[in-house]
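Assemble and predict.
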Amino acid sequence: MTAKPRIEIEYCTQCRWLLRAAWLAQELLTTFETEIGEVALIPGTGGVFEVRHGNTVLWSRKAEGRFPEAKELKQRVRDEIVPGKSLGHSDR
Amino acid sequence: MTAKPRIEIEYCTQCRWLLRAAWLAQELLTTFETEIGEVALIPGTGGVFEVRHGNTVLWSRKAEGRFPEAKELKQRVRDEIVPGKSLGHSDR
């Protein structure tokens, strides 16, 4: 298994959320190209939209009541896996 | 771990192949919405572009000398994980 962190994005297929899940996966894989080992897209149901690192839920649509902007999701992923990393513009 | 199959797509970041890897991931997750447990996007280097199911390489750009069309990749994934499934138009 790669030693680099695995990020999971579970999305609701009934709600047709694959496209935004895949979009955020590409945003994370672009920003953290060398730091992330993989991003797994996981089909789910019942309104789920969660971004996780292991047991840590980085974003839960149900808890937050909305989807993340790319910037805030990247900040949470950065804080979780590469705390020192600057995100440039999107960090402000 | 989900019991459904995990598909891996490893792509070369130096070659900027994230977009086509993410595209194929979405194609597979749409066609096999209920049969696939996850599709993992895995950044790699050195010209790699491989689609795998466990130890089975379903497509290797190096071996095939090119990228897969969505149709042929879906046929190989179908043959591997859901042999009986019809793919409709794209199966011909």
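The mean pLDDT of chain B is 95.
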